[in-house]
Design brief:
By secondary structure, the protein is mostly helical. It has one domain. Helices cover about 75% and strands about 0% of the residues. The chain has helices at about 5-20, 25-40, 45-50, 50-60, 65-80, 80-95, 100-115, 120-135, 140-150, 160-170, 175-205, 215-240, 245-265, 270-305, 305-315, 320-335, 340-360, 365-380, 385-395, 410-430, 435-440. The longest helix is centred in the middle third of the chain and has 34 residues, at about 270-305. The radius of gyration is 22 Å and the shape is globular.
Length: about 450
């Protein structure tokens, strides 16, 4: 049987499981096992014996231990009200800019992204603080929800980034350099969001209320509120860039520093720590189940030679580098409608990574490109998780414009401009790859 037929049949099995409502992790694992039983080489029984090793090796990965620690750090920052105080302090300092508190949303999500590593956690943390404040002040709901949903996606790009950790383990790349590759593109994208909001609110005056000017004393009192988040971010970036610690060690140090600031903030308690650990454990368990299941499916692709054959087929098409780049955009746009970032990564890297190298792309650059496309996926129905997170939070508060509350359509319409901004941004990254490769090259 040819590799093409095998590939098509395995994909049919996988997407059939998706469409009947099977959970992503079980769909990937089930498709992998079924595929190995039918197509496994040299025999299906021999191929199946590798599954135990796959589960074990992924479960004991030292690099992967950074994930639960970064998630725990984000949970502590959220539950100790460090993020809420940071947002309110930041709003006093930059609230007079065009766009008012909308600018605070982007700035706060960018900083929280440098703590949590998760798009969903970032959107939820800042959204739960800003939505009640801004709906009370009559900010345009679509602008409000769009800034939060898109700003939350920065959690995937600005380190620590869970997708970049997974990318590093899949490609045997340096996670530290991958983190550094995301710094400049991540904060530059945040600045682009800020400029977009400022320009749009300047042109169309009715989107925001009159800016509230904080007094000098209020600004001074706001500084202690923003310092913990800034110092935590400086600790993480400083340790990584200086080569003082590995990503896993930095995650542990960051968690300890977050606990210290919680104590200083007088919000530390054993209940808070326990709740943070339980939540981080649940998030990690879900993610690790997806990772292990996806690795089983990846082994099917490697065992049957599909990944090598796809690379050879792509090269035989005599595509230009830009042509291959456009194909990758199309693939991730389609997959972004069906699955979240970790699944996209595990599904495509075994097939595309050899072709990425063959076409001359820098692996660090491609990691950043992938994450930006994963950010686009966070805003793409029907799976776009940030859309549902923001809508879920908004449902808890009354809509001053309608007794029926806020709708998902408002969140989607508000996020649409950022969807196109990020699509244009990947072309900017293609034209200027140094945005991703310069900082890690200085290490």
């Amino acid at each position: 049987m040819s590799w093409a037929v095998t590939f098509i049949l395995t994909m049919v099995i996988l997407f059939a499981l998706f469409f009947i409502g099977e959970w992503v992790a079980f769909a990937l694992g089930t498709a992998g096992v079924i595929g190995l039983l039918i197509f496994g080489k040299p025999t299906s029984a021999a191929a199946m014996t590798a599954i135990g090793s796959i589960v074990w090796n992924n479960s004991i990965s030292y690099t992967m231990t950074a994930i639960p620690l970064f998630v725990l750090m984000g949970e502590i920052v959220l539950r100790a009200d460090i993020s809420a105080k940071f947002y309110r302090g930041l709003a006093k300092l930059i609230g007079k800019l065009p766009g008012g508190l909308l600018q605070s949303n982007i700035a706060a999500t960018a900083f929280f992204a440098a703590i949590s590593g998760s798009a969903i956690a970032t959107a939820a943390a800042i959204g739960s603080v800003s939505i009640p404040e801004m709906t009370k002040r009559r900010y345009n709901s679509e602008m409000l929800f769009g800034s939060l949903a898109s700003g939350g996606t920065l959690g995937l790009l600005i380190p620590p980034s869970i997708p970049l950790i997974i990318y590093g383990t899949l490609t045997n790349g340096s996670v530290t350099k991958l983190f550094m590759a995301g710094v400049v593109p991540g904060f530059l994208l945040a600045l682009i969001f800020i400029f977009y909001i400022g320009i749009r609110c300047t042109i169309k005056k009715g989107l925001t209320p009159a800016p509230e000017a904080a007094t000098g004393k209020e600004k001074l009192r706001a500084i202690p509120d923003i310092l913990p988040m800034i110092l935590l971010m400086v600790t993480i970036f400083g340790c990584l860039y200086g080569g003082i610690a590995t990503p896993t060690e930095v995650a542990a140090v960051g968690t300890a520093v977050a606990c210290f600031f919680a104590i200083i903030n007088r919000s530390f308690s054993w209940k808070m720590l326990r709740d943070s650990m339980i939540s981080a454990g649940k998030t990690t368990a879900v993610l690790m189940l997806i990772i292990v299941s996806a690795q089983v499916y990846n082994y099917l692709l490697v065992n049957t030679g599909i990944n090598r054959s796809v690379t050879e087929w792509l090269l035989s098409l005599n595509l230009t580098k830009f042509g291959f780049f456009l194909i990758c955009i199309g693939i991730y746009l389609v997959l972004g409608c069906l699955m979240e970032s970790a699944c996209m990564l595990y599904l495509t890297m075994p097939v595309l990574y050899p072709a990425i190298i063959a076409f001359g792309f820098d692996p660090l650059w491609f990691a950043v490109f992938f994450v930006v496309m994963a950010q686009v996926a966070c805003l793409t129905p029907p799976i776009g998780m940030n859309l549902f997170v923001i809508h879920g939070i908004a449902q808890n508060y009354p809509n001053p414009e309608s007794p029926d509350g806020f709708t998902l359509g408002q969140v989607i319409r508000g996020s649409l401009p950022y969807f196109f901004i990020m699509l244009i941004y990947v072309f900017v990254l293609y034209l200027f790859p140094e945005l991703a490769t310069w900082l890690p090259g200085t290490m």
